[in-house]
Amino acid sequence: MIEASGKNSFQDDKTTTEEIMSRLIRKSRETESAALSVKKFFQQVIHYILCLYILLILGVLPFYQEEGYSHIGTDKSTFFNQVSVMAGRLLFPLLLCYLAASLIECLQRGRAKKNETEQEGEGLWKGLKKSLSLTDGFALLYGIVLLVSYACSRYRDTALWGEDWWFMGLYPQLALLCIYFFLSRLWNPRKELFFLVFPVSGVVFLLGFLNRFGIYPLDMQVKNVQFISTIGNINWYCGYLVSVFFGGVFLLWQQAAQKPWQRALFGAYVAAGFATLATQGSSSGIVSLAAVVLVLLWLSAPKGERMQQLWLILLLFSAVCLIIFCIRRIFPESMTYSDTVSELLTGSPLPIVMTAVSALAYLGIVWIRKKKDYPERLAVRLTRGMCIGILLLAAVIGALICVNTLYPGCIGPLSQISAFTFSPAWGSNRGATWKAGLMCFLEQDFLHRLIGVGPDCMAAYLYGNGSEELLSLVRERFGEARLTNAHNEWLTVLVNTGVTGATAYVGMIVSAIVRYIRQRDRNYITAAAGFCLLAYTVNNMFSFQQAMNVSTMFVIFGIGEAYQRRKENVS
C-alpha cells in the first residue's frame, strides 16, 4: 500500500511538472504573439509613412516650384529637406517602438525554442549580421565617415546642411541613407508605387521636349533655353531624366509588360524619353545611353528574343531621331536650342543611316528566329568581343588625350582636334572643374585627405583656404559664379569626405548595380533599379548631386533593395 502510494505520488509530481512546463510554454507563446502583433502594427504604420514619402519624392517633387525657374533648384532642395525632416520626426520614434517589440519577440521566441528543444535560437545580433549585404556595409561606412568628416571639418556651419542654395550637407546625406535603410527593411514593396515614376516622368519628358520647340504649356518665370521642363537647369534635367528613364528602357527590353496595351504604353514612354534625350542639350545623357546599350548588348547575346528586343529599342530611338530630323527640315527655326550631339542626332542625315541599320538588324534577327536558327555561340563571341573592343577603344582615346596633353602634337593630325587636349575648356569646362576638384583634394593634409573637408564643403574650402593658383583657375573660368562641386560626383565626394568616404560611396553604388542587374531574370523591379543607378552614375561622372536627381535615385535605390530582399521572385 505504501509502495503504491509512493508510485502515485511520483506520477502526480511528474504530471504537475508537465503542466507547469506546458503553462510556461503557452504563456511564452501568448507573450510572443502579443509582441509580434505590436511589432507588425508599428511596421504597418511605418510602411504607410514610407508610402507617403515615396509619393512626395517620386510624384510631387518633379513638379514642385514656387516662382517658375527663378530659384527652382533651391525650391526643390527645401522641399526635399522639409519632407525628410518631417518623415524623420515621425519615423524614428516609431522605429524605436518597433525595435523594442522586435527584441521582446526575439527573446521570447528564443526562450520558447529553448524550452521545446533545449537549443538556443540564432539570436538578434547573428540575425542582424546575416541580413546585412555588402551594399549595406558600404552604406553604413559612408554614414560613419559623414559624421567623422563633419566632426573634423573647419566649416561646420556649412557642413551641417550644405552650401547655400544647394543643401547637400550632412543632414541631407544622412536623410538619403536613412530612407535607403527604411525602404529596404520596413517598407512592404508595392509595385504601383514604383511604377508611379513612369507616368510622372513621362509628363516631365513631354514638357521638356515641347520646351525645346518654344512651346511652354506651363507658365514658368525666367524662361530661357538653359532651363527645361519643371526641373530647371539642363544639367539638373538630364540628371533626373537618366535616373528614371533607363529603368523603363530595361523593362521594355525585358518585356515585363504582359498585356498589349501595357507594352504600347511602355513603348510610348520610351519614345518620349528618347525624344527629350536627343534634344535636351546635355551630352552626358547620351553617354549614359551608350553605357546602358553596351550592358544590354552584353546581356542580350545568349538569347535571340532579347537581341531582337534590343534592336527594336534601337530602332525606336533611331526612328524618333528621324522624325525630329524631318520636323526640323520642314520647320528649320523650330528648335530653340541644340548642342553638338543633338545637332548630330536630329539635324544631320545620321538618323537616316541609324534607322536603316537598326531596321535591317531587327528584321534579320526576326527572320533568323523564325527559322529557329539563332547562332547563340557566334552571337555571344561577336557581341561580347564588340563590347570589349569598344571599352578598349575608350581606354585608347583616354590614353591619347593624356599623352597629347603632356606632349602636345605627338599624336599627329589628331592633335588638331580640341577634344584630344585636356585643358580647362575641355568638355564644356569640365577640365577646369575636374582640375579644381583634384587641387582641392591634393592641398589637404593627411587627415583631411582621409576624411575630407566636410559634407558639401568643397566651395567653403576653395574660396576660404584655397591656394592662389586654385582661386585664379576658378575665377578665370567662372568669374563671379561660385563653384560648389567638381562636376564629377565621385571627385566631389572625394574632396568632401576623403578617400574613406569616396571608397564607401563608390562601393555602395557599384555593389548595388552589380547585385541588382544580376536579378534581371528573377526580379525585374530590382534589375530596373540597377539600370537607373547605372545611368545615374555614368551621367554623374560629368555632373553632380542635387536634390532632384539624388533624392529620386536613393528612393529607387531603396525600392530595389526592398525587392532584392524578398524571398519570392517578381515576375
TrEMBL record:
**What are the transmembrane regions?**
45-64, 84-104, 134-153, 165-183, 195-214, 234-253, 260-278, 284-301, 310-330, 350-368, 388-407, 490-514
Q: Does the keyword Transmembrane apply?
A: yes
Q: How does it sit in the membrane?
A: Multi-pass membrane protein
- Compartments where located: Membrane
Coiled coil (residue ranges): none
Q: What is its main location?
A: membrane
GO terms (molecular function) for this protein are: ligase activity
One GO CC annotation, please? membrane
Listed A to Z, the keywords are: Ligase, Membrane, Transmembrane, Transmembrane helix
List, alphabetically, the PANTHER family matched: LIPOPOLYSACCHARIDE BIOSYNTHESIS PROTEIN PA4999-RELATED (PTHR37422:SF13), TEICHURONIC ACID BIOSYNTHESIS PROTEIN TUAE (PTHR37422)
Record protein name field: O-antigen ligase family protein
Which species does the entry assign this protein to?
Candidatus Acetatifactor stercoripullorum
